[in-house]
Design the sequence.
């Protein structure tokens, strides 16, 4: 069976800085993979290569067997298949919560407005911010913004979701509500690739944890393996700092 | 303070300063003579109409051509980008007076156009397009990168990202500098008089030539320009404040 997301020998450099080096990764349908590691270890870049926001210098990225290449003419169709949630939300400030969620289904999938908005309301309910549907992002708390952003990504009915440090910009008291939504999604069988510093979430929800450092996967395994008996010295050093 | 009142105060202050200068000149024995001005008032009236018309035509041309320039400069295609850059460099690197002469003595005859108003106005539009294009480009580039990425990640193509995500946010940042461009080209249109377009400045030159009185007609012209530009600049400032305060899109204002 083809993996939902498949990376082979992916490398990426910015000038002299190595962002990713020889990354091999398969994420199966319904699998939740959490990448941990210090800032600048390449977690974000890895995610951004999956939906072609960045182009790998070497290696291949595939979504259900289709090559992700920035310059392919139908890259927009492929991008639409993967949802992405950003650290800083990037909600569209000129649109209400509802419009944020309904925009892409209308434009990209050609859904009629009424249908797109009905679906959007259902999604806002699912992430618990239905009462904010007609509010602009500036009036939302960080946690509410991120939940709207998750609903916006889900509106495209993606085959996988990418979460790029979704709770790192949140006040501590709001982290729980966002992780709650993500936990719920994982429980529903969503394929997820997550970059996060939330070790508790990784331990509880991830099927597999990757420890990245200097653009390489240093160690991969079940949460129990990584957190309780890491094999690599670098993993131990990192965990001793964050746990 | 209302827009009208603010403009009025400004005009009043300007008038007071001018009156002061006039008083000093009068006291030092300057022989004021506004009779030619009154006598040839129809020239001014026509002049204002032509100036406003030229500014309107030039601004329209500038907006359309400026959009093309901005899109060219933001293009992914290197050659197109270079063409956009070149246009801006050439237009901004030469005086408008030179451009209008080239347009009038070179381009217009080649195209078989024999109309001073249209030649001048369109040339002015081409001049303004370089600046307006830069306003557009700067407005688009001022939008946070994350907005593009979020839109692209949802599967929106470049055109839709621009149309539905970037432009609605960028337009309100563009409006104050665009008003500035409108003011600038209104003043710049005075150079159209040099190819014989009968706008405001042309009226003053004619009256000077006919009456050998040059100071008064130009003073009057200055006052007329100010009554056009001051309300515009007050409007620009108001818009700036208003748009700066709200993160809402324009249609919600």
Sequence:
């Amino acid at each position: 069976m083809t993996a939902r997301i498949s990376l082979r020998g992916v490398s990426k450099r910015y000038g002299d800085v190595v962002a990713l080096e020889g990354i091999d990764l398969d994420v199966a349908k319904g699998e939740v993979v959490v990448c941990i590691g210090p800032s600048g270890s390449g977690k974000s870049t890895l995610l951004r290569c999956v939906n072609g926001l960045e182009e790998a210098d070497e290696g291949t990225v595939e979504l259900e067997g289709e090559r992700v290449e920035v310059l392919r003419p139908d890259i927009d169709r492929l991008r639409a298949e993967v949802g992405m949630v950003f650290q800083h939300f990037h909600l569209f400030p000129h649109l209400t919560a509802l419009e944020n969620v309904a925009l892409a289904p209308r434009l990209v999938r050609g859904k009629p407005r009424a249908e797109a908005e009905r679906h959007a309301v259902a999604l806002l309910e699912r992430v618990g911010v239905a009462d904010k549907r007609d509010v602009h992002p500036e009036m939302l708390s960080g946690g509410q913004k991120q939940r709207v952003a998750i609903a916006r990504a889900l509106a495209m009915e993606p085959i996988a979701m990418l979460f790029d440090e979704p709770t790192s910009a949140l006040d501590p008291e709001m982290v729980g509500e966002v992780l709650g939504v993500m936990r719920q999604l994982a429980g529903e069988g969503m394929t997820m690739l997550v970059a996060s510093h939330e070790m508790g979430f990784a331990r509880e929800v991830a099927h597999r944890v990757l420890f990245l450092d200097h653009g390489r996967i240093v160690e991969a395994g079940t949460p129990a393996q990584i957190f309780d008996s890491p094999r690599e010295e670098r993993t131990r050093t990192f965990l001793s700092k964050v746990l | 303070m209302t827009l009208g009142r603010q403009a009025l105060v400004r005009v009043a202050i300007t008038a007071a300063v001018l009156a002061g200068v006039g008083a000093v000149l009068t006291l030092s024995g300057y022989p004021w003579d506004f009779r030619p001005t009154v006598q040839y008032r129809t020239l001014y009236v026509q002049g204002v109409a032509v100036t406003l018309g030229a500014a309107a035509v030039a601004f329209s041309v500038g907006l359309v051509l400026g959009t093309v320039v901005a899109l060219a400069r933001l293009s992914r295609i290197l050659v197109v980008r270079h063409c956009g850059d070149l246009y801006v460099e050439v237009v901004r690197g030469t005086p408008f007076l030179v451009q209008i002469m080239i347009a009038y003595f070179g381009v217009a005859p080649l195209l078989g156009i024999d109309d001073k108003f249209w030649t001048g106005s369109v040339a002015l539009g081409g001049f303004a397009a370089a600046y307006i294009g830069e306003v557009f480009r700067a407005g688009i580039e001022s939008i946070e990168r994350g907005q593009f990425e979020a839109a692209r990640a949802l599967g929106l193509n470049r055109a839709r990202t621009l149309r539905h995500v970037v432009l609605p946010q960028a337009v309100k940042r563009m409006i104050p500098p665009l008003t500035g461009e409108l003011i600038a080209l209104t003043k710049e249109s005075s150079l159209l008089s040099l190819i014989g377009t009968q706008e405001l400045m042309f009226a003053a030159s004619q009256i000077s030539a006919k009456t050998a009185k040059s100071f008064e007609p130009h003073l009057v012209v200055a006052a007329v320009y100010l009554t056009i530009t001051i309300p515009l600049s007050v409007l620009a400032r108001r818009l700036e404040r208003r748009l700066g305060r709200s993160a809402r899109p324009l249609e919600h204002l």
Observations:
- Chain B touches chain A at residues 144, 146-147, 149-157, 160, 164-165, 168-169, 247-249 (CB under 8 Å).
- Residues 184 and 241 of chain B are 20 Å apart (CA to CA).
